[in-house]
Amino acid sequence: MVGDSLFEQRIRADRASLETLASRISPLMARNETAALRSQMIAAGGELEGRVLLLDRNGKVQLDSYGEMQGERLQYPEIANILVKGQNVDYGVHEMDSGRALDTSHLLFTRRTNASWVGYCTAGVVHASDIIGVLLLVSPVQEMMQNVYQLQDQMAVILVAVAAAALICSWIFSRVITRPIAGLTRGIRQMSKGDFSSRVKVRGSGEMRQLALAFNSMSEKLETLDQSRNQFVSNASHELKTPLATMKIMIESLIYQPDMDKNLRTEFMTDINSEIDRLSAIVSDLLTLVQMDSQNVKLTRENLSIAQLVKENAHRLQPIADQKGQKIILSLADPCDMYADRNKLNQVIYNLMENAVKYTQAGGQVKVTLQRQGRDARLTVADNGPGIPKESLPHIFDRFYRVDKARSREKGGTGLGLSIVHQLVLLHGGSIRVESEEGSGASFIVELPLHQGS
Is residue 361 part of a domain? Predict the structure, then answer.
């Protein structure tokens, strides 16, 4: 494009000058005024800085501003285009030594830096609407060709520089994009092998940063879930193994001591029966938790009063509290009517109140408070027992977790009661938390949305 522009500028300048000269000498050539023609051509050659030749309609040179080629017949395509095809003007570039024409549309592929180039510009000499001759201007175009070649070199350098810069930018950009993706791929591959501790570096911003954060969050949750599962299996195995081991010892004693005292034998059988009851309770609680985890538990809702459920459970637990000299104090500010599953809410209230009675020392007290807060019912079960150590509070709803393992087993707990309570509260769209300080008792606070229904 740039080469064409340079050629067009040169062609326009030479054509305009040559057409002007052709119109000026047309009447002189028609009258065959040789002296005037020669004078005009010599003057024009000086002005145009080239060699001017006048050819007749047969292509034979009549006049040469250099005075060397009169009588010779020239057969350049630019001359033929005027005489044969009837063009008014034409232009071409030729190699000086060979006279071979240059295809200006393929300068990049026909480059010959050592060649000498000249431009042939032709214009028809017209008289009375008839071409009576041809003017040929031969001018050096070496400087123009050198400029074109120099421009080609500069464009080639720029092209190479731009291409190199584009390749470098593409490589850097691809590295920026693919590095976090490669990190994610490695992390996913490690996770597929069971290593959930894999994390990726969070880099940059936008979607890749969000993807890395989401992956790390997922990995952390999976790792926590895997640890919880392993801990659950370990705890479940231990809890199931303990009563089985106890029963095995007592049964072996009965087998290998056939003459055992009758009272001792009865005591052993009673203990075995207790262990079976404990084992059955553990299995039952485990099945309940499995059902809730699989989200197969359906709520059978009905209209009920939480205050009424509290009163019923307080009545059931009063004999146990009386044996320990404890007081159960009820503060029910509102009936808190709601549409919920009676049996499951009853289990929540009973477990919390039973734990408070069970783990509070003799002579202590258990206070149950119920009040309405906006659209929620707030149930608080508080005691003045030994309390819960600060390090145990985050794990109080974990499965098989016991604050005092020895005392908990002595009291017959499975370590699953609070986990079941937590799941049942969540099923009703509520929340539960514990507040406690060691030596100052514990308070379990349950908040449930009040659903009115038919």
Answer: yes
Q: How far is CA 113 from the centre of its chain?
A: 55
Q: Are residues 360 and 323 in the same domain?
A: yes
Do 445 and 311 fall into the same domain?
yes
**How many angstroms separate the CA atoms of 19 and 364, rounded?**
125
Instruction: Give yes or no for a contact between 254 and 268, defined as CB atoms under 8 angstroms apart.
Output: yes
pLDDT, tens digit, 9 for 90 and up, residues 404-432: 654 444 555 566 778 888 888 988 889 99
Domain CATH number, residue 89: 3.30.450.20
In terms of phi and psi (left: phi > 0; alpha: psi -120 to 50; beta: otherwise), the region of 213 is alpha
Same domain, 347 and 269: no
Q: In 3D, which of 355, 384, 372, 218 has the Cα closest to residue 305?
A: 372
Q: What is the pTM of this model?
A: 0.49
**In a shared domain, residues 415 and 311:** yes
User: Are the C-beta atoms of 59 and 75 separated by less than 8 Å?
Assistant: yes
- Let me know if residue 440 belongs to a domain: yes
Full residue range of the structural domain in which residue 283 is found: 207-293
3 state SS of 45? helix
> What tokens were used for 49?
């800085």
Could you report the per-residue pLDDT of 72-103, keeping only the tens digit for each?
998 888 889 899 888 888 888 887 766 666 66
- Do 62 and 56 touch, CB atoms closer than 8 A? yes
What whole-number distance in Å separates Cα of residue 324 and Cα of residue 322? 5
Helix (H, G, I), strand (E, B) or coil at 135: strand
